[in-house]
Amino acid sequence: MVATCGLSPDRLKFLRTEVLPEKLYWFHPPGSVRVLWNAALVRDWLLNGDSPAHQRAIESFYKSLPSSQAA
Questions:
Q1: pLDDT tens digit sequence for 4-63
Q2: pTM reported for the whole predicted model
Q3: Alpha carbon distance 71, 56 (integer Å)
Q4: Could you say which DSSP state residue 25 is in?
Q5: Residues 6+ apart with CB under 8 A from 42
Q6: Is the pLDDT assigned to residue 70 strictly greater than 80?
Q7: Helices (H) and strands (E) in the chain, counts
Q8: Which is it for the CA torsion 28, 23, 10, 40, positive or negative?
Q9: Could you identify which of 11, 13, 31, 71 might form a hypothetical disulfide with 7, taking C-beta atoms 3.0 to 4.6 angstroms apart as the criterion?
């Protein structure tokens, strides 16, 4: 994530603990200490903040999930 968005590890830790909610922007896989990031949404948030455009990006992300597809 550091290379993808150009953020320092300290900045990423701040975003993870204070700003960006878990399970949408980042998560810990079960049994792991690693943090996996939703790089596309983090980049969009960095560009747009919590704007209506970013809310549309979140909605689009949720619609793209397999659980949102009609059977």
A1: 788 899 999 999 999 999 999 999 999 999 999 999 999 999 999 999 999 999 999 999
A2: 0.86
A3: 24
A4: T
A5: 1, 5, 15, 20, 25, 26
A6: no
A7: 4, 2
A8: positive
A9: 11
